[in-house]
């Protein structure tokens, strides 16, 4: 075969690999990556009947930074992953992990089918092992753009952050028919594992978008806050926002059942805040801001939901977010206004102490710079759990409006029959400074510059911990 014949054969075989997948799957890649930056891998890894074409794999850039991507194409045999398709995924995971760049996985198909059932088990075992191996090494990001059923659904919670689309993302282990066979009850796909269920009830989905374009934008926005891997620092983004900007009206936001996100935005560069898991456990707000150009992970009690109390879901939500930030060298800021843990029979019987211990463990274990700002209530063990000085937080600051103590003023008055003046003094931030729980009391309107300068001095610090393989995290 001469050179011209070989080139013609190459073009013919390459076109077979694209088949019908020039539509949505490749459009998704275009929506995520910088223009004309995508380079496809493993295009010829397929069977004669086209199996293998259901997976598009390759790399590209987001804001000129390298990222790997895997897309499941539902137009090829329903997106069912074949043996060759599975090999593509595993090869790409290994490539991303070894080179130290984030991996984006887009799931949209009817699961996995290989000719030998033992091969199926091997594929899933290797896939789960690879996710575990590279967790905390590279950011693992997932977009559920359709169906993600059966054993493949475990890839969703094994990811760091998951993006979903309203009415078009489905994550479930067992089908509605399987549920009916066991329980006798009818249930729809939406009720079983739809986007709202996974965003609001179990927290599998961190970002819930109205459409694909919005999901892809959120994905790009998130990547810009993150380092490429655990050995790098997050990228610094220059801002025109004055680091010495003050917020004269910030303390006025402390109304009954206020929205803490307004305070977060006042502190952030350009007043921009990317919230994580907005739909899940909304009594604890988590997300990313920039402060003087640096990426910063934020946790904050949300007073207009359960008065900002901690509960089962918010404790897990906070712990997971802290551990991600710690793994990828992202400093933490905690805004504290917490009356306590939610007091119900359900919370107690469902293990609030174990879930709460996860949050305590995550704060104490994290070695990134940690700053806490107490704006309002900070009572009891809940106050300790929310980034207190006792959990190795580097700087604990307070507004003059803070109330800090083992009990609330009402609790102190009831238990010890103290007059109001004495109870107010007992929980004042000034007493907390004397007792060593707070480092300084600051003007609320000067919070942004104060936090920025504090972060500047903390960012190069190192923390030594006892030598061990790992702690026994209360899972």
From TrEMBL:
One of its GO terms (cellular component) is acetyl-CoA carboxylase complex. SUPFAM superfamilies: ClpP/crotonase. It holds the Pfam family Carboxyl_trans. Residues 1-27 are annotated as: Disordered. One of its GO terms (molecular function) is transferase activity. Residues 235-460 form the CoA carboxyltransferase C-terminal domain. This is Methylmalonyl-CoA carboxyltransferase. Keywords: Transferase. Residues 1-238 form the CoA carboxyltransferase N-terminal domain. Signal peptide: none annotated.
């Amino acid at each position: 075969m001469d050179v011209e014949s070989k080139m013609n054969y190459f073009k013919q075989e390459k076109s077979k690999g694209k088949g019908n997948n020039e539509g949505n799957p490749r459009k998704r890649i275009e929506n995520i990556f910088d223009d004309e930056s995508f380079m496809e891998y493993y295009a010829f890894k397929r069977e004669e009947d086209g199996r293998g074409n259901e997976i598009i794999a390759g790399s590209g850039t987001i804001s000129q930074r390298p990222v790997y991507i895997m897309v499941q194409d539902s137009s090829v045999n329903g997106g069912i992953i074949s043996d060759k398709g599975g090999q593509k995924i595993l090869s790409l995971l290994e490539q991303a992990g070894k080179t130290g760049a984030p991996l984006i996985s887009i799931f949209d198909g009817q699961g996995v089918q290989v000719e030998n059932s033992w091969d199926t088990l091997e594929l899933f075992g290797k896939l789960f092992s690879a996710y575990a191996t590279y967790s905390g090494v590279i950011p693992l990001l997932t977009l559920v753009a359709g169906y993600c059923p059966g054993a493949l659904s475990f890839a969703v919670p094994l990811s760091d952050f998951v993006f979903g689309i309203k009415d078009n993302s489905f994550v479930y282990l067992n089908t509605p028919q399987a549920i009916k066979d066991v329980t006798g009850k009818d249930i729809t796909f939406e009720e079983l594992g739809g986007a709202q269920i996974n965003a609001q009830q179990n927290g599998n989905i961190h970002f819930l978008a109205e459409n694909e374009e919005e999901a892809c934008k959120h994905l790009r926005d998130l990547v810009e806050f993150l380092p490429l891997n655990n050995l790098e620092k997050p990228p610094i983004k220059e801002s025109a926002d004055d680091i010495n900007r003050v917020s004269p009206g910030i303390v006025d936001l402390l109304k009954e059942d206020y929205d803490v996100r307004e305070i977060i935005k006042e502190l952030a560069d350009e007043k921009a805040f990317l919230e994580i898991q907005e739909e899940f456990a909304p009594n604890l707000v988590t997300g990313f801001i920039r402060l003087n150009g640096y990426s910063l992970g934020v946790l904050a009690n949300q007073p207009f939901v359960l008065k900002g109390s901690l509960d089962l879901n918010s404790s897990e939500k906070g712990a997971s977010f802290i551990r991600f930030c710690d793994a990828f060298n992202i400093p933490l800021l905690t805004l504290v206004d917490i009356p306590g843990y939610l007091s119900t029979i359900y919370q107690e019987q469902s293990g609030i102490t174990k879930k709460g211990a996860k949050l305590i463990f995550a704060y104490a274990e994290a070695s990134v710079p940690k700053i806490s700002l107490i704006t309002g209530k900070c009572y009891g063990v809940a106050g300790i759990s929310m980034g207190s000085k006792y959990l190795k937080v580097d700087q604990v600051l307070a507004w003059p409006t803070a109330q800090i103590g083992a009990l609330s003023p009402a609790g102190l008055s009831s238990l010890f029959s103290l007059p109001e003046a004495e109870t107010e003094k007992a929980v004042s931030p000034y007493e907390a400074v004397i007792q060593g729980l707070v480092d300084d009391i600051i003007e609320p309107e000067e919070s942004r510059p104060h936090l920025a300068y504090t972060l500047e001095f903390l960012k190069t610090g190192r923390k030594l911990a006892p030598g061990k393989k790992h702690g026994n995290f209360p899972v």
